[in-house]
Design a protein that fits this description.
The chain is an alpha+beta fold. Among the domains are: about 190 residues; about 120 residues, no CATH class. It is about 45% helix and about 25% strand.
């Protein structure tokens, strides 16, 4: 279940346009200054995502190393490997795999995500209490009112600091080691916060409290609390915990794989790109799987393939000639438009001396829509549906309810289904440890510089299998990089 950090709502309330770092002009106070600072941070980080990405040369020699950036796009850090357009992702570099492995070790558990959300909310509550306290002091309110507001602030700060310590105490050994620098900054910020809080308490509880001195102490506390919140934010980002920018995953692109699928004795080349993304799951490691297959070769040969199955020329019977066919995407479905000529002949005369006579003939066009459907057993099927028939009456009848129409629907579905065999894609691109633990959830066709089919699924594997997955990817990378 996705947990949205409360600061997302507060960003909207304060006029922040998420992703563009805008704020209302003239906003004052602790929260306004903090949000403006964070908005600039977001803009700076988003600019960093445009770095050059890696590629693999045709001779399998690595000629460029992709850059890696941490995104604000979700509860799990997003390591960008291969580019934002997943239809054009390239190879896997050693640095990418190391970063993925390290990020897995540092990634927050589902329990830590819950604890982090509660911790951040407590810090934000303390920020609200401090803002109200500053308003009371600014109004030169009565001493009892200031004291009451100070007590509420103390309680909020104590809770925020307590939950912060509890969260840091939940770290595993890899997290303690890998996040040491970030946790030291959080601990230092928490110590400064405690010091400023004590100074404010002394001033408020003094024999002759001075409003000006109280305001100065509150201002220093404001700065300490802002820094504390910022350091918590950085720590959460380092653990891949969701922030206010929205959803995203710890992702790794897989090296493209090529497969040859034989259709009617004609090899059809299919290139498959893939991405695996770690997502939150209770009690096990769950990865989102996205596969993108390039079906341009099928698109270019669909006319010849249908001709080889449907064309026939019976001297005393039916004659069918496919004049042309096209295959395009009509997301999420595909659309096959077939043009053909149909004639029916009969023969009269004695055996061996038949005289053929044409009974009927005509031309027609049929638009067939094929929609992917994943069944309960996770097997992919195509549901054919006739969009439109434009034909002479004789041909229209054959296409609508005759055996010709049935054969065309069957053969078209079979050709596409054979090409989008997801089991072939999985075996081609996934390491063996993950192949038997993957399941398909959704598929759709897309038009992106050629016909593509995008398949979404999941992988559920144990901690030991995750280690094997990384090792098998590393071995595959080594094999690709070695000279032949």
């Amino acid at each position: 279940m996705q947990r949205i950090v409360a600061s997302a709502v507060q960003l909207r309330n304060f006029g922040i346009k998420i992703g563009f770092g805008e704020s209302r002009p003239g906003k004052r106070g602790l929260r306004g200054r903090l949000l403006m600072r964070k908005s600039c941070l977001y803009a700076w980080m988003l600019v960093g995502f445009a770095g050059a990405l890696g590629a693999v040369a045709q001779n399998n020699t690595m000629i460029n190393q992709p850059s890696i950036g941490s995104s604000l796009h979700g509860r799990h850090a997003w390591i960008v490997i291969g580019g934002p357009d997943r239809l054009h992702m390239t190879g896997l570099a050693t640095e990418d795999l190391k970063a993925f492995d390290r990020a897995l070790a540092l990634q927050a558990t589902s329990e830590q995500v819950t604890a982090y959300d509660a911790m951040v909310r407590s810090t934000e509550t303390a920020m609200d209490e401090l803002e109200m306290f500053q308003e009371q002091v600014g109004k030169n309110g009565a001493a009892p009112q200031v004291s009451s507001s100070a007590r509420a602030l103390d309680q909020a700060l104590e809770k925020a600091r307590g939950e912060n310590k509890q969260f840091l105490g939940s770290f595993s050994k890899p997290q303690q080691s890998g996040l040491r620098e970030l946790t030291l900054k959080v601990a230092k910020a928490e110590s400064d916060l405690a010091q400023q809080s004590n100074l404010l308490d002394q001033e408020v509880g003094g024999a002759n409290p001075d409003a000006r001195e109280i305001a100065n102490c509150a201002k220093n506390l404001d700065q300490a609390l802002t820094n504390f919140y910022d350091q918590q934010f950085s720590l959460g980002k380092g653990m891949g915990i969701e922030d206010v920018m929205g959803a995203g995953d710890l992702s790794l692109s897989l090296p493209p794989a090529k497969s040859l699928i034989n259709l009617e004795k004609q090899p059809i080349a299919v290139t498959v790109d893939g991405t695996i993304s770690k997502v939150a799951a209770e009690g096990h490691n769950q990865f989102k799987l996205e596969l993108t297959a390039d079906l341009s070769a099928l698109q270019q040969n669909i006319s010849d393939l249908l001709s080889s199955k449907l064309n026939k020329s019976e001297r005393c019977g039916e004659q069918v000639a496919v004049h042309g066919a096209s295959l395009t995407a009509q997301a999420p479905a595909s659309l096959v438009v077939t043009e053909l000529h149909v004639a029916r002949w009969t023969c009269f005369g004695s055996l061996g001396m038949e005289n053929p006579n044409e009974l009927a003939e005509g031309n027609g066009t049929i638009e067939l829509k094929l929609t992917p459907m994943v069944e309960q057993d996770h097997k992919l099927q195509l549901v054919p549906e006739v969009n439109r028939i434009a034909a002479d009456s004789f041909v229209a009848e054959q296409l609508r309810s005759g055996p010709l129409g049935a054969a065309l629907r069957e053969e078209t579905s079979r050709l596409l289904l054979s090409t989008i065999e997801t089991g072939t894609y999985v075996k081609a691109i996934l390491p063996s440890v993950a192949q038997d633990y993957s399941s398909i959830e959704k598929a759709e066709f897309r038009e992106a510089g050629g016909l593509r089919v995008v398949v979404d699924g999941t992988i559920q594997i144990s901690d030991e299998q995750v280690k094997l997955l990384v090792n098998q990817l590393r071995n595959r990378l080594s094999a690709q990089a070695s000279p032949h």
